[in-house]
Amino acid sequence: MRKPRSEMIAETRAKLIDAARKAFVEKGYAEASMDDFTAEAGLTRGALYHHFGDKKGLLLAVIVEIDAEMSERLAAAADMSASRWQRFVDQNVNYLNMALEPEIQRIVLCDGPAVLGNPSAWPTALNCIEVISSGIRELQEEGVVREMDAEAAARLITGASTFAAQWIANAPDPAAAAGKAVEAFKMLLDGLLLDGAAPGSAC
């Protein structure tokens, strides 16, 4: 029985994205070739051009997929936290620790900005900002953090964490850089707290 066209399209896209992820992490964006993607996926260059436009478009699709997986992982880990404030902190700090993972380091934090430009302009950035904004508003309602514009704070936090993650990914000793970044980032987040607020009390 012939598969529906929508299912065939989804399978073709998935094959190309999977092949690209493998090539990008093993060889890097500059060294990975169109033939690497198509040969691995068993498809033609025409299929790649049709679905992604070019190599750059394929990189963006790969980053969107990885970003979605990162968001799911961050949300799942944050659900284990003891309080709303701790969930907020853990979600942001765990993002920095993900910068130690080879695939995220190379594709998202090194090649991504070099090829696609400023990460704050990527489509994935808006979702991140909205998640952080929502978390700040919830904490304000609980009387845990100061009154401020939630979106402005979210953009500042996102900018700081993105820049720190890029620093970690490109550092001579990523683990050491991550330790320093996490410690400093927690102190920055503590600055959001109202004087006398008990972070562990907001459930």
Question: Would you give an account of this structure?
Answer:
The protein has two domains: 1-53, Arc Repressor Mutant, subunit A; 60-202, Tetracycline Repressor, domain 2 (Orthogonal Bundle), CATH 1.10.357.10. The protein contains nine helices and no strands. It has helices spanning 5-27, 34-41, 45-52, 55-78, 84-98, 102-116, 123-141, 150-170, 174-190. Helix 1 crosses helix 4. It starts with a helix and ends in a 13-residue tail after the last helix. The mean pLDDT is 90.
Which keywords apply here?
Tetracycline Repressor, domain 2, DNA-binding, transcription cis-regulatory region binding, Arc Repressor Mutant, subunit A, 2 domains, Rv0078-like_C, DNA-binding transcription factor activity, mainly alpha
CATH topology of the largest domain: Tetracycline Repressor, domain 2
Overall radius of gyration: 19 Å
The gross shape turns out to be elongated
Tally the helices: 9
What is the straight-line distance between the termini? 52 Å
Compact summary:
The protein has helices spanning 5-27, 34-41, 45-52, 55-78, 84-98, 102-116, 123-141, 150-170, 174-190.
Secondary-structure map:
Elements: H1 5-27, H2 34-41, H3 45-52, H4 55-78, H5 84-98, H6 102-116, H7 123-141, H8 150-170, H9 174-190
Helix pairs in contact: 1-2, 1-4, 3-4, 4-5, 4-6, 5-8, 5-9, 6-8, 7-8, 8-9
Pfam family, one: TetR_C_41
InterPro entries: Homeodomain-like_sf, HTH-type_TetR-like_transc_reg, HTH_TetR, Rv0078-like_C, Tet_transcr_reg_TetR-rel_C_sf
GO molecular function, one term: transcription cis-regulatory region binding
